[in-house]
Amino acid sequence: MGVFSPDLNKDHSWFKKQQSQNYDLFGTWLTPRLELDTNKPTLFLVNGWMGTHKDNLQYIDFFEGKFDIFGLDNRGSGKSTLEGDLDVVQFALDLNYVLLGALDEKFGKKAVESGTVILQASCAGTLPVAVMYADKFPITKFITHLVLISPESKVYVKSSIKIFYYTPVWLAKIIRKGLLPLILNILFFGKKRADARRVTRERLDSLDLHVAQRQVKQFLKKADVSELWESITVPTLILIGQNDKVVPPRLSKEVASQIPNSSLLELTAPDHLLVEYNVGFVRKAYLELLEK
User: Fold this and answer.
1) Same domain, 177 and 34
2) Sign of the C-alpha dihedral, residues 165, 171, 174, 180?
């Protein structure tokens, strides 16, 4: 048996049943399909909670065609279904199913040799990565490198935001419409944090509050993968922000200390938008990672 689920290498019937019944994640190539190149590294982008592939379009310019890039809409967001449950195991199952499908699309059915494959995950999106490695999900055989941005073992949410998620939906809608700008100005004070306010506002405005409240109870509140990180053995780059208020740096450093083959890079940014404010550093770090 695995940590959370049956041993997927032995119980294929269980795995096939799970993926056929519960697959609800939307993924798409950000690189135009006609431009996919089997000689290029593949970059999978897993967002934090409620993220969508539209958040990743910037990576096309960042990496200037050096990667074939695949983005995801997390369950309950974008083009993914609003139905179905979400917990850290289900998140991992969804990722495994969609990413294997993407490799099949790029390299042909049942890809065996897929070259360099980087999986980048952010914030809450790092938790299912730990599950996939602890339970030896099939996709982990193809991933050659990991990039974890602001990783955390349990999802950190400020008390002021938690209250917002646990209020009745009708009241949460009123707060979102009338008080959200004031709340964000307090949480992300100052001109330097205007981008963080804008991105957070866009995310919160797009939420289906019924879905958000259900997922908070299933995923954000219960998930804890603190004992699983040591299962990761591939070269792993961990990016953290010195001024990150969404995921405090100490939480990401705790993760870094548990992954054997990892390197830690602290970036200066006014808030949680690490990559956007450090494009040059991140691009260089990726290229150095590929040399490992």
Assistant:
1) no
2) negative
3-state secondary structure of 145: strand
**Residue 17 sits in which domain range?**
12-155+224-290
- Cα radius of gyration (the chain): 18
Q: Cα(8)–Cα(2) distance, rounded to whole angstroms?
A: 8
pLDDT tens for each residue of 221-239: 567 899 999 999 999 999 9
Q: How does pLDDT run across 103-125, given as a tens digit for each residue?
A: 988 988 655 677 899 999 998 88
Nearest one of 204, 50, 46 to 125, comparing CA atoms = 46
Helix (H, G, I), strand (E, B) or coil at 269: coil
Q: Write out the two tokens for 229.
A: 């990180």
Helix, strand or coil for residue 34? helix
Q: Provide the pLDDT for residue 287.
A: 80
Confidence grade of residue 288 (pLDDT, cut at 50, 70, 90):
confident
pTM of structure: 0.80
Q: How many domains does the chain fold into?
A: 2
